[in-house]
User: Which sequence fits this backbone?
């Protein structure tokens, strides 16, 4: 009668298996965090672009409007710093 061979795992093999699982878990968490950051970046950048277009209908200089649009296109969410700290940009009539 044929008997199947016994498979034994040494402590060293078990350690390497557990280490590999830990690394892959950290990779998954890092990937999820990166995905969340990218989604926030894209959403806030998209809203910044829309707001820069809306600001063309508000009272401010044409230079401020063009700079706002370029910032929204090129640096996305950092547009909001320009929006907050430039007191002459996007004023109501």
Assistant:
């Amino acid at each position: 009668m044929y008997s199947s061979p016994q498979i034994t795992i040494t402590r060293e093999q078990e350690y390497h298996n557990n280490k590999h699982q830990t690394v892959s878990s950290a990779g998954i968490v890092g990937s999820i965090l990166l995905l969340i950051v990218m989604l926030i970046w894209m959403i806030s950048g998209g809203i910044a672009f829309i707001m820069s277009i809306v600001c063309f209908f508000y009272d401010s200089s044409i230079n401020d409007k063009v700079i706002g649009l370029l910032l929204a296109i090129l640096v996305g969410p950092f547009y909001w710093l320009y929006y907050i700290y430039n007191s002459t940009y996007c004023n109501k009539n």
User: Anything to note?
Assistant: The chain has a mean pLDDT of 85. Helices lie at 11-54, 62-75, 79-85.
